[in-house]
Write a structure and sequence with these properties.
Blueprint (H helix, E strand, L loop, with lengths): L1 H16 L8 H4 L5 E7 L5 E8 L2 E2 L1 H10 L13 H13 L7 E5 L4 H10 L14 E5 L5 H11 L3 E5 L4 E5 L4 E2 L1
Parallel strand pairs: 1-4, 6-8
Antiparallel strand pairs: 1-2, 2-3, 4-5, 5-7, 6-7
Helix pairs in contact: 4-6
Length: 180
């Protein structure tokens, strides 16, 4: 037992140096506080309030609930979301001063069929949208200027940020850092 307790910090240190993808290490990706979200889905009328991470540990049941909540509401298709996106949303809420606020979801997961339909019937929908990989989400924060929310999201430097002032929402994703 003493052997394990002596080497546990070393194992953690070594594991935190390994990349989790897209150049992020464990220490950069997971804050040590709790990850909590309050969400309202504008198309389904559903609300969810849950803790999805405690410290550096994601809670599988909570992630499954978020996957369902963010499903393609048109088809019912569910896809497993990249949990880093939830960390981005949590940080965004904290940095906006609305840590306990309820974020409105305009679009979560999009099935390929839904994405193609939207691409052919509206503008601004990418053919290879990260919504189809459950790595993107469109949001608004009621009572908070969308332009300010965009600026905060850009300052995080955690992925793509799109600004849609006419529709009053922003897009955030965990892809490469870019803006539009």
């Amino acid at each position: 037992m003493r052997f394990c307790s002596l080497f546990a910090p070393v194992v953690f240190l070594i594991s935190s140096c390994f990349s989790l993808g897209r150049g992020s290490t464990l220490a950069e990706t997971l804050p040590t506080d709790e990850g909590r979200l309050r969400l309202y889905h504008t198309h389904t009328g559903q609300h969810i309030d849950l803790t999805f991470r405690r410290g550096t540990e994601y809670i599988p049941e909570a992630l499954s609930r978020l996957d369902y909540f963010l499903r393609d509401y048109r088809t019912g298709d569910i896809h497993h979301f990249d949990p880093r996106l939830f960390d981005v949303l949590t940080t965004l809420m904290k940095d906006s001063g609305h840590e306990d606020g309820e974020l409105h979801i305009v679009c979560g997961y999009r099935s390929p069929a839904t994405n193609e339909y939207l691409r052919t019937h509206t503008s601004g929908v990418a053919k290879t949208s990260l919504h189809m990989q459950a790595e993107a989400i469109d949001i608004r924060l009621p009572g908070f200027q969308t332009a300010k929310l965009r600026d905060i999201a850009l300052s995080l430097g955690k992925g793509g940020v799109g600004y849609y002032p006419v529709s009053n929402f922003i897009h955030v994703d965990v892809g490469r850092v870019r803006r539009w």
